[in-house]
Design goal:
By secondary structure, the chain is mainly alpha-helical. It contains 17 helices and no strands. Residues 86-106 have a biased composition (Basic and acidic residues). Keywords: Membrane, Transmembrane, Transmembrane helix. Belongs to the OXA1/ALB3/YidC (TC 2.A.9.2) family.
Length: 355
């Protein structure tokens, strides 16, 4: 009977993430002998340190966001080159027909109509979404960017863990867990109290209660600026708009939760700062240089260092389309390459093989 009860207790502990989180917090507090205001950041640092390899791999994989942004821009250049080559090829063919038929005016009129339609057909053969996907695949292989699955795997581990630890601290504060009411720091000696009680709209710490929520928001904004998504203007604005609801939510959280959130944000900032300043760490994690450049470097310089030559991109796209059986798109890319580089033997050989 005792063994059966012990098994049930163990299963209940595993199946209840909140209870497991409470045991983790209490274990860190008891093992370290630190007061709660120091035990919470110390435990957070230990957890994030254990997950550091996964976090670094996810940081490297986040370069896919920057890569996708550049792939969209590069795909436009490819489409323009294909359209230009198609118009030039049609113009040359029609000029030959003009010389043979002697009807120059009528040929020029048909050239204006036929060239535009032909260009649309040639560009349409590439496929907008498919073209961006293939350009991104070429860039990913060129810069050895890890799969975006690493980023999703990190989120699948970190997010449930953060939610479980947050809910555990909330329940511990609601139950007035021993020590939480008197082992705070400075003005927030009671870690179970929030900056604002929503029911009564009272502020137990006065204006000082806004310090931790404000510090949390500042850490969040700084981390967003250093992230891969933050380097894209649209994503940066969208992420920063979340700072207002984050601040409102932080005002209602116990200070124990705010300490945990602030420690988590500080650890993320520390990861970005370490990766920016330590090239050896970036190489060990497989962070692609240039795609996740330090903030001190300008975006223009970073983009120039990692730019893909259009000619090499056209050749790679032609091979990719040919392997998938889209010979029309492959031929369009090769003809655009020959327009840019007349006499390119490699492009001529591949074009003859497609005929």
């Amino acid at each position: 009977m005792a063994a059966h009860t012990s098994l049930e207790d163990s299963l209940a502990l595993v199946l209840s993430p909140t209870q497991l989180g409470a045991q983790l917090w209490e274990g860190a507090h008891s093992a370290s002998g630190l007061p709660w205001w120091a035990a919470i950041p110390a435990a957070t640092l230990a957890v994030r340190g254990a997950l550091l390899p996964l976090s670094l791999k996810a940081y490297a994989a986040s370069a896919n966001v920057t890569l996708l942004h550049r792939a969209v821009t590069a795909s436009r250049s490819v489409a323009e080159a294909v359209a230009e080559a198609d118009e030039q090829r049609r113009g040359e063919r029609e000029r030959k027909e003009d010389a043979a038929e002697g009807d120059k005016a009528e040929a020029q009129s048909s050239s204006g109509r036929g060239g535009g339609n032909g260009s649309a057909v040639a560009v349409g053969a590439l496929g907008r979404v498919d073209l961006v996907r293939r350009v991104a695949a070429h860039m990913r292989a060129q810069h050895s960017v890890p799969s975006f699955a690493w980023y999703l795997a990190n989120a699948a581990v970190q997010v449930p863990l953060a939610v479980s630890l947050t809910l555990a601290l909330r329940r511990m504060c609601d139950s007035l867990w021993p020590g939480l009411t008197g082992e705070g720091l400075l003005y927030f000696t009671d870690l179970t109290a929030p900056p604002v009680y929503l029911q009564t709209l009272s502020t137990p710490f006065g204006t000082a209660g806004a310090i931790l929520p404000l510090g949390l928001v500042l850490l969040y904004v700084s981390a967003m600026d250093r992230s891969a998504g933050g380097r894209s203007p649209g994503i940066n604005i969208a992420l920063k708009l979340l700072s207002l609801p984050l601040y409102c939510a932080a005002l209602l959280q116990p200070h124990a939760v705010l300490l945990y959130w602030g420690s988590t944000a500080a650890c993320q900032m520390g990861l970005y700062a370490a990766a920016d300043r330590m090239p050896a760490l970036r190489r060990a994690a497989g962070v692609p240089e240039g795609l996740l450049a330090p903030p001190a470097e300008t975006d223009d310089a970073s983009a120039a260092d990692t730019a893909v030559p259009l000619e090499a991109l056209l050749l790679s796209l032609a091979e990719s389309y040919a392997k998938s059986g889209n010979k029309v798109a492959a031929a369009a890319c090769l003809e655009a390459l020959l327009t840019k580089q007349p006499g390119n033997t490699q492009a001529e050989e591949r074009l003859r093989a497609l005929s």
